[in-house]
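Quick one: structure for this chain?
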Amino acid sequence: MQTISDVLDPARAKALEATLGDAPKLESGDLLPAFFHQVYFWDPQPPDRLGRDGHPGLGGLIPDMGLPRRMWAGGELEFYAPLILGQSAERRSYRENAEIKQGRSGKLGFVTLRHEIWQAKSCCVIDRQNLVYREDSVGGLKPQAPPAAENEDFGETVTFNSTLLFRYSALTFNGHRIHYDGSYARDVEGYGGRVVHGPLLAQLLMRMAERELGKLKRFEFRATAPVMDFETAELCWRKDGACWVRRKDGNQAMIAKAS
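Got it. Here's what it folds into:
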């Protein structure tokens, strides 16, 4: 178990509002929007405790399985009570699962973390984080992106760039180099460029869901293919709460369900 306490500073929430393209307006006492807790509860580590990819070295809460490539594959969020800006809160983190399986492209390590966000003696949010670790690319099979559905009730086009990725990395204290170091992303991890954060895509879908449904009770998401910082994508919404990210090539980058 790992416990981190933080004060939900309105300035940091405002910075995320601006990063997402909104006029900053959140103040102390306001309710924190869904998933904005990502910009709190940092766990800063000195450089000698970081891995080659910029993430904290493995061991402890996340075991070292000898697989160097990290991907945030998805998550499940349950919202029980609102988090209040300007007040202290605590994140209690647990490892629920860690196992290695053999995939078509090599060994895969699966890790599930459960983060409980507590405030005023109540568990307000449970945030399950599903991580996948892979071997270095050696010319093996690459997962094929599935085709995205086209039966949405409406969609919203979004664009990305290196500035957006840098600001989101800074606010979430995410040092993963695939999001800001193009040479590393291409030459070491085999991507086509800087990779848009999976949680950023989920955040954009959650904002859409909050506009349509109001306060969320649950949100589940799964990443299925990467989006690069130079690409456009479509945020797709259906009235039953299904939502997804469709890349410009028509393939699915993320699928989610809100309620």
